[in-house]
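Long-time lurker. I teach an intro course on protein structure, and each term I like to show students one example going from raw sequence to a predicted 3D structure in token notation. This year I'd like something fresh instead of my usual example. Would anyone be willing to generate the tokens for the chain below so I can use it in lecture? Attribution to the forum is fine with me.
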Amino acid sequence: MRVGIGYDSHRFIAGRPLVLGGVTIPHPLGLAGHSDADVVLHALGDALLGAAALGDIGAFFPDDDTRFKDADSSELLRTIVTQVQAAGYRVGNVDMTILAEQPRVLPYINPMREHLAGLLQTRPADVSIKGKTNEKMGWLGRGEGIACLAVAVLEHLPA
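-- Reply from a regular --
Happy to contribute to a lecture. Here you go:
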């Protein structure tokens, strides 16, 4: 088995949809970023790449490359999963913690788990997502953005 950890954060911005875990969530603000700024998928991508010792998401999808401007992070994660499989691994399980004062993510966790299971080619039971606040502390606590922590376990593919 191999284990990787990922982290991502983005600040809120007006005029963009809020996408978390591949699910569009009703909210007056979206997240600023070169792609769709899905912090869940970006953190998960880094965890997967880290577990396979393949680098980080920025090496695959640089933020100065116009091909990835407003990119759907679900498609980026599909590419990462393909790279992980090519390196000889499959996803065992993943665990993510979304850090946000608002919006509350609980109503969207099961749709995110379903979506991620499809992208990862695994079962929803192998995808864990939790939402936590930052207890009003720091930039997250002031509601300036959202962050996500992710852990991924990879298993060697059978020879």
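Some talking points for your students: The mean pLDDT is 95. The radius of gyration is 15 Å.
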